[in-house]
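Throughout this chapter, every protein is written as a compact record of paired, labelled lines. The reader may check this reading against the record printed directly beneath this paragraph:
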Amino acid sequence: MKRARRQNRRYRGSRSGGIGVLIPVLIVLCVIAAGILYFVNDNMTFTLDGTFLSPDKEKPSGGDVSANLIIESPEDASAAQPDETLPEPEAETTVPEKDAGVRALFIPIGEVKSEELFAAKLSEISADKRINTLVLEVKAEDGTLAFSSDSPLASAAAVSGDDGTLSRVMQSAKEKGYRVFLYMSCFKDNEAARKSQEESARTGNKIIWLDNGNVRWLSAYSEAAREYLISSIKKLSSLSPDEIILSNISFPAEGKTELLSYDKSSGTKTEILEGFIADAKTAAGNIPLSAVYENYNKSCVAESGQTPELFSAFERLYFASAGTKFRNGADNAGELFGENEIIVMSPASDEDEFVIKK
């Protein structure tokens, strides 16, 4: 029993002796490490050429610098650099090419008469349509005007618009780089014909006539009706558009035309339209005057009074792309007018020249 106790005491003593040796060793190592760190820190040199250990205090040729080296502040950098102001990148614009033919978008009168709606329409025009011209409807087939008129027919129908609004929307379009064409319906005029029935197309018993779309027409034989349209062209010319386009230079040709009655003592239908076209060109002055050729088919062309010879006098001729029951499409336009400039109106187009009219 006593022998066993001596062995236990020896085991415990040996553990205590191991710890007692380890602690001094660790202390010595810490002292040595601190000395090395102090030596290195005291003899380390930082230069622009690099970092060096030089116990003899002889510094490399690069010169002393602080370890926390700041090469340049933002102000120093700008001072050190030449004053070169880079040009700001130009904002992308879709300025149309004015000399690249007519690539037009037709804008109905409702959007022309509202500056807000017109601005919204301008913002919708996408560059991939290559639009360089806006065709503004300023006298619609229902008789509505986007400008003011002193004509008794306009006053009776109460259809006048606002000159200021039209001028501003035209200016906003031009500021965007677009050419502006003004588009007016001539003798197809529902409101003026309704309120001034003596100047309208009527039947033999003086009843106002309606075409197959229930629209009334002014009679081209009416001097008052012609004067109303000529005064409208003069007004549009004073607004300095790039072009005026006339449509419905015609007598009614669609519907029960056999019921119509005219006093033809002043000339044939073609002669009446010829005189109107001459007066219209005079009223337009220096503004190019173009027209829509309705291109009635054989069963209707005699009623209309239109002929290719009459319309050859215009700057340009516009054709609807698709045919109808009463009209031919644009396929035969070249045969009718030869070398005249012909532009097709359609809901969409990939032609070199076009009017998108939906």
